[in-house]
Give the backbone structure.
Amino acid sequence: MGFRYILRKLAGTPGFTAMAVVTLAIGIGISTVVFTVYASIAFRQLPVRAPAEMVRLGWRSGGFPSDQFSWSEYRRLVEVTHSFAGVLASSTQQTFVSRLPGSSPDIVRVRFVSSNYFEALGIAPEVGRPFSEDDRAVALMSHDFWTRKFHADPQVYGKTLSIQGAQLSIIGVAPEKFAGTGAPPQTPDLWIPASAQPLLTPGVEWMRDDRAREWQVLARRRPRVTAQQGSAELDVLSRAWPLEMGKPVQLSAGKATFFQMDGGAFESFQAVCAVLAVAVALILLIGCVNLTNLIAARNLGREHEVALKRALGATRGRLIRQFCAESLILGMLGGIAGFFLSDWVCRWLGTKTIELLREVGNGAIGITLDLSADWRVLAGTAVLSVITGIAVGILPALRSSRSDISATLKQGAAGVSGDAGVRRTRNLLLAGQVASCLILLAASGLLFRGASRSGEIRPGFDIKRLAVVGMDTSGIAGSGSARLDLQRQALARIEALPDVSSVAWADRPPFLGHGTGVFRNERGALLGCVFNGISDRYFATIGIPLVAGRVFTPQEIEQQLPIAVISESTARRLWPGQDPMGRKIAPAADWLRDSAGHDSFTVIGVVRTVRSTYLSKDDEGYVYLPRALHDSGAMLLVRTRGLPSRSFRSLSAALAQVNPNLPPRTFVIGLEEGPVRIQELMARAPAVAAAFLGGLALILACLGIYGVVSHLVSRRTREIGVRMALGATRRDVITTVGNQTLRPVIWGAALGLLGAFGVSGLLRALIVMPDLPDLTYGAGAFDPVTFLGALFALGAVVVVGALAPMRRAILVEPAEALRNE
């Protein structure tokens, strides 16, 4: 009965109810979007049986973490561990040429897995059966591949497909939600038993080659075995584990999720989510303030009803419960609407993100991104709805329940002017709303200014005619020398192409990852630097001018001598006003020395400072080291005579002449169309998000100010009538109402400016960090014009929000206002 009564009361004020639900839906919806994205990346568990029991094994040696094992190491983990049941292995993702009966050749993505893979995960195929110990030339398809290539044919069991000339029999189809266990998640087209790996890659046997660390290992904890017990067993096993390059190995086990947050690769993602969480919390705060004022204004018209109920015996507690129940139902309705809004937004974001990655990466970048809501999101949205509903209703409920019964009944519905405590609460809420809005406006202005500059920034070298060629020869040649020979042949073929002017290689091509570490000069001065291993023709291919000294020779590259080329900014900061030629620079940490290969390096050259780590700022510290081609793969930089896209076919044909299996295992992307565009998006995406949130805050602030002024006018209608009857002018009325409104607005603006300066300081701290981008694109983190613009926009909102209620105030007829006097 009580629930139906509350619904009837809310239905009786449809305008108020709709406004309240929409306000809450926006605040709760965008909060849920951020929480869903974070939960999907940080906590999304594998879609397997009892996912909390699954762990991902890894190891660390000399400061370098890895989650890849050799097959013999995997087998040792199977045999000697007692805390884990169903230890399984999955290879890194491989690419092959496949041919279905009656169709043209196509590229397929494959993961080789141990025979117990699906059984240990608890995955039952949608069609067919999982692998058995005796299976070899068989394959199990992903649901997507089954749908695309076989049109979801339920009779697919037993059909064959040709991969690299090997005939494989299809024995099953994985469930639709199963994306595999790769980290990061990339759903393969096919899972194939590890025993079939030599069939597809003749001459390469990862199960026999201890140097081929191609396997990710997961395990399921045995019943009643805790995570601490499993880690303790791995600690003991680590002591007997073979040394890695003379250093001890530490084994570890972490929760098996889609994206491994404990690997340190998602620190920037966590920081972005934290900033977004603060921003949407401010939006929700503004919405709550608006709704609190709306409920207070609505309750104002119910003072006569409340007084009658109290006169008839209703207690304050019962009235408070009724008002809180109404706001709680509003919160639940807003939460439901916000959840559906967030679900739509998240699905759109997931689809657009995957499409964008495929587009800018020319098909080379692909992940499985599931942004659908799980139980955490549902629980979080429900809790947020309840808390918000109670929060927006408790103050108006307490205020309404304290009304003077006799005074209210005497004055009817006109009400009284309220006490000082009510005014202080109202002013405090309005000041907080204005401050939150100004902070968001200032932040969006700073970020949007950076995004507007991103298209005008030039890195300091010609990016229009540069392509990146990434080769994976691990599945083609069995030995390191054979893989190295393949890369050298590919390099020679590419160099001989008429539309190629220069070729080089690097550990990390521009804008495609970076390594950072601290280096010191001979006096002990420290500098955080980006470092990169490069070839002798790197600078000529990229187009970075030599300022002093010389570059590496081919012999120095092959021998990887302890020499270095540094950027101008590095020389200026380590040796200000001095000649850096012949001076020593040394890694400051053991892991960095291991990575660089020497304890110190002699500077032989200085090149111009460019932007090759982030497009948004110069590489303030950069150390180039000589690096020979190595057998683990090659990242080539190719300068073409025309646009890179026109050379893609000739590059693929040249690789096919070296080995027919090489093109499908190679990605080719234009530097400008791929990595540089991603850099620009890194600036535009936060700016667009900030602008959206700032605009939303501005709209809500306008509604909030309108509500506060309307509330104030309605509370003082009788007083205004009295004043005007006694000779007060319209200007006097506007001054009175404006003073009471502008005082909290001014305080809020002052607090908002302090918050804006805090945002500016945060951006300034991020700018100086070498491994984080400058989202302002060199414009700086402090801009008086941006802050003044935000103040102007907020001032305009104050005027717009106050106009209509003030006009209503000055049009009050004294006789009408005093009619009930």
